[in-house]
Input
Amino acid sequence: MQNKKDILWGGATASSQYEGGYDLDDKGLDTQDCRPYLKRTSDATTATRLLTQEVIEEAKKCQGIGNYPFRKGSDGYHHIDEDIALLKELGIDIYRFSISWARLYPQGDELEPNKKGIAFYDRIFKEVHKAGMKIFLTMNHYAVPLYLVENYGGWTNRKLVTFYERFARTVFEYWGQYIDYFLPFNEINAGYFSPYNGVGLVKEKDKPYNQSLVFQSLHHQFIASAKTIKIARKLSPKSQSGCMVACFCYYPLTSSPEDNLKAVRDEEINQWFAVDILANGHYPSYMDRFFRENDIHLKMEDGDETLLKEYACDFVSFSYYSSSIATVQEDGQQTAGNLVVSTKNPYLKASEWGWQIDPIGLRIMLNKMYDRTQKPIFISENGLGARDQLNSDFSIHDPYRIDYLKQHFKQIEEAIDDGVDVIGYIMWGVIDIVSAGSCEMAKRYGVIYVDGDNLGNGTYKRYKKDSFKWYHDYIQAQHQQF
Ligand code: BG6
Output
């Protein structure tokens, strides 16, 4: 008999990409508010790699929204009620959103939270709950208060663990009763690929990132994760704690042993190390060699290892958009992907942004992750970033998105039949938001269209795309089967 299962279907946004209102409620400036819109190059992730102190100084001089799309987001700040009503109408079971650290703690190191920030999120938690949706909270989705970056060196400094703990305690004291699932950090392995986004590390001009600082910062985030889980188990005992990585399904380019070994190593260093630490509770042995060969010396405190073991997460989660190619050859044709570039795969089509579309890769990763952790899996992000056309009758026809979703949902079904314990699926950017990689509005994931452009022009009115009805009907049909 076929294994089938009713899972939670959801949609997600992230505060820095959705909210806007960057200077309202006494919110402090954060790292995402300082990322300028840059005309796209072939490497969609260039924007995050160029973040030097000079870029930040320029950003601080700009008083308004200017060329900084995250400051406006999708103007969620002024559309919260309407958006929650639309999500309710869509019929999703669970809404994933994040909290802006700098709205709750504008500098990051204050002893007390900002009351206006509390009031802002209080309304969101209560309204989402009232609308009958479960809550999947990302406590920190990339944005770090700029003050912590400039005055403490971001996550390189262990003091951030203390500041983060304070932030976490506030979140669970106020809203622990509403939280069903939570992630201390979005895509924790981003600290490795995109250190500015992931751990608030500013790039020194013309120099590569210092890998010791990158991994020290990540260690601090691992400890902060464990401490958050400890707090949540006390203040929000019904909530489930998770970890999340950006998932890269690596295929070797050729059948050569060298390419195969490269695929294994790339997966280990790019994603498994974080899963092994947070879900399995310890630093895996393959990291010893990596640290040795890269001259990385981690500073750990007494008790760190016990903490990681005792507060391993309850479920694992990942974002999945495309697969990648691993090879030792250096002359392959490159294409963009989520946070990383990859060699082109001749068997796959790519989105306009170069991300290679591979639904079977999702099934492979679900199987691999489950085998590795034996923990329930939440697909916390997936979707198609595409250019949509708003027609004069306010319709938006997006058959490409429906096709993408259909193909990926089929592979989730297959994975469940393979025996993988999938608990939920969350569509990324269910309401159009600013792209995290390329800082533009033109790359849209939503089933809800937001009428704004890359430079913040537009009405910011919301319109339903064709995929809205399709996703709604799909969810209803799924639940009716059980
Ligand atoms: C994930 C991030 O890496 O990919 C999201 O968690 C991001 O914040 C998503 O938006 C899609 O990437 P992009 O660059 O298309 O926005």
